[in-house]
């Protein structure tokens, strides 16, 4: 009993220190909150910069040739209509007798100039990144469509990141093989690593879209 009473005042010391720290922090509260807001702002700014890098890849020929708004794929850096009157078909896989995979194998066939990749077919119309006149859609429009799970195949941020990291048709763009004349197809404007890093940065910033 007696020992306890003597110890009691000592117990106040940590409490007192704690209170002083708390008061000190509260006094700086406004400043702390102010810093937080500007950190969030820069994060969104950085996210928007990262998005523009992503957009530059999405709208480059190797990607956008499959993300058309019309009933046919495109080919080449000038994104001209696919030869042989190839058409989209009900599931983007062509039509019987002229299906994509009757020509496009799972790997590039460099001797014949036919590019290849697993399950080669057109992206659905909800994932189009250009208009009927083959002009790339504005950055803000593509961005909003990419984050819209009703349009993007139900992908959340992590699934989008995984798609950019691993999807064979995405990876193909960085290994697009040779054209019929034997020259290499051109690559997207970023390396695959930089593209994935930009996607990660954009997702961490909350997937902001330009207005
Ligand atoms: C008759 C064979 C054939 C069929 C069928 C076919 N393709 Fe192709 N495709 C080719 C050849 C050959 C090339 C290469 C042309 C070139 O590089 O000039 C090509 C190129 C492409 C490219 C261009 C790659 C690039 O970025 O330049 C895309 C995209 C493509 N095909 C998509 C499709 C889709 C989608 C289908 C089905 C709806 C399909 N193709 C059906 C033979 C075919
Ligand atoms: C050979 C055709 C083809 C090429 C080339 C291609 N895609 Fe796609 N893409 C598709 C198809 C098909 C889907 C739909 C996938 C599904 O439903 O499983 C798709 C879906 C996507 C999606 C899902 C979300 C959305 O709203 O579009 C993203 C993101 C995407 N592609 C990115 C890319 C990028 C980046 C590249 C180039 C580096 C690329 N694609 C090249 C055919 C292609």
Can you describe what's shown?
The chain has about 210 residues and is mostly helical. It has one domain. Helices cover about 45% and strands about 5% of the residues. The strands form two sheets. Strands 1-2 form a two-stranded antiparallel sheet. A two-stranded antiparallel sheet has the order 3-4. Helix 2 packs antiparallel against helix 8. Bound molecules: heme C (HEC) (2 copies). The site of one heme C has 25 residues, from helix 2, helix 3, helix 5, helix 6 and helix 7.
Strand content: under 5%
- Shape assignment: globular
Average pLDDT: 89
Integer-rounded radius of gyration = 27 Å
Strand order of the largest sheet: 1-2
Give the total of domains.
1
Low-confidence parts: 23-34
Helix/strand-derived class? mainly alpha
Based on DSSP secondary structure assignment, what is the total number of beta strands?
4
Count of DSSP-assigned helices: 8
Biggest sheet architecture: 2 strands, antiparallel
What is the distance, rounded to the nearest whole angstrom, between the alpha carbons of the first and last residues?
A: 70 Å
Cofactors, ions and other ligands in the entry: heme C
Order of helices and strands: HHHEEEEHHHHH
